[in-house]
Amino acid sequence: MQSVKNYLFLVSVIALITLAGCAHYRAHPLKKLVTPPVKTTHQAIAFSHHALSKGECMLYLDRDVLAKGYQPVHITFTNNSKNYFTLSKENFSLPYANSDDVAKLVHTNTAGRAAGYGVVGLFIWPFIIPAVVDGIGSSEANHQLDADFAGKALRNQIVAPYSTVHGLIFVPKNEFDANFTMSVTNQETGTSYTLSSSKPEVKL
Length: 204
Known about the structure:
Helix content: 25-40%
Distance between the termini: 84 Å
Structural class: alpha+beta
Number of strands: 8
Order of helices and strands: HEHEEHHHEEEEE
Radius of gyration: 24 Å
Number of domains: 1
């Protein structure tokens, strides 16, 4: 009888450890968007955008960012010219949030569950194990999440000739408008060019 109790106790602890280790972060790389076809016979710049759905948020960010009030928008910019262009998020007509602030909103939080294990662990010592596992797993998942959000966010940058860059901007959901504009600046001449949904390509 005692051996059966010990067996059931061991199975219960293993199950708790398994559940405690469920904090994770698994996201897929962003797929590049196809920009409007740019003919090789002329110099041009072009952009495309796509607002992520809930399913795409889960696929590429492993979190429902929409539920936290932010619309992730995937931006791709193609520079099919001999010029260098400055791309800045400040030159979008949409408001945006910093990726690290959005990441914090969707952090895995297992503090309550870990505390519960810890309290029980004061009386039944093996329950300390899932408390530790839960805390470590949550911390690692949040670290991976922060790094991935930062890596996928669109950066302020210089876009080299004949290259394409892409990334996400996080727009407050109630302020998102699919008809927005973005401007880029020729680094040498200082000339700015505005691209939009109705004018996604500009010949130079």
